[in-house]
Amino acid sequence: ELDIWQYIYLENIEIVPLYLADKRPVVERDGMLIMVDDDRMELQPGEVIEEKSVRFRTLGCYPLTGAIESEANTLTGIIEEMLVATSSERQGRAIDHD
Predict the structure, then answer these.
(1) pLDDT, tens digit, for every residue of 49-93?
(2) CA separation for the pair 92, 76 (Å, rounded)
(3) Residue 35, class by beta-carbon neighbours within 10 Å (0-12 exposed, 13-18 middle, 19+ buried)?
(4) Which structural domain range is residue 11 located in?
């Protein structure tokens, strides 16, 4: 994943804003932060919407991709974050659990 972000930086490739950290409405569900961005997201009992600084390491089908808490709101911030990351970019995908 780090090599991809470095390539994007070096080639000055535009990215989707969801890859960059921003304050977003999320709920914690099954250990993941799921963004609440439209009426399709039905809250489960006890869930509370919170504004957190999050970004997405991977994008997938709604609402199967979880966000990660992050302050990386630039490409260099993402690269710095990746240099110390200890988890896979696929960690936030609900469909990857057995």
Answers:
(1) 999 999 999 888 767 789 999 999 999 999 999 999 776 554 444
(2) 22
(3) buried
(4) 2-96
